[in-house]
Amino acid sequence: MTNKTTPRKVLIIDDEGDLCLLLNILLDGKDMEVEHVQSIAKAEEYLLQESPSLILLDNRLPDGFGIDFLSFVKKEHPATKVIMISGVDAAAQDVALENGADAFLRKPFTRSQLHQAVNELLGTEEAVTSAS
């Protein structure tokens, strides 16, 4: 059975190369076209050109906080789903969700936690669970 759907665009905004690579491996090939940038400035540039279905957004970036960037994302792309990722700030979860994040993952998170969040937001149950 071949699925000819257009891949969904996923943007990873994170300055940790290892995490970007891992997220890319976990999501790639599941009808998702994954790209990543390492700063808010680059993310802003990308979002003025593209409209991703999903953004995985780290909170601590070299040029600011993901939580502060959420308002820009939601203003420019209200339909885009955002999963906020943070390893340091326990209190960030409430603020992130209040500011427009659709889900929150605390580092370190498991493959199944990532897949569950993606499935819930994009409705890709059958595409992503097979790799869990």
TrEMBL record:
Q: Which Pfam families did the record assign? A: Response_reg
Q: Please name the SUPFAM superfamilies in this protein's record.
A: CheY-like
Keywords in alphabetical order: Phosphoprotein
Q: Which sequence ranges form a coiled-coil region, renumbered to this chain?
A: none
UniProt cross-references to InterPro entries, sorted A to Z: Bact_response_regulator (IPR050595), CheY-like_superfamily (IPR011006), Sig_transdc_resp-reg_receiver (IPR001789)
Q: Which residues carry this modification: 4-aspartylphosphate?
A: 58
Q: Which example biological process does GO assign this protein?
A: phosphorelay signal transduction system
- The Response regulatory domain sits at 9-122
Which protein is depicted? Answer: Response regulator
Q: Which organism is it from?
A: Chitinophaga silvisoli
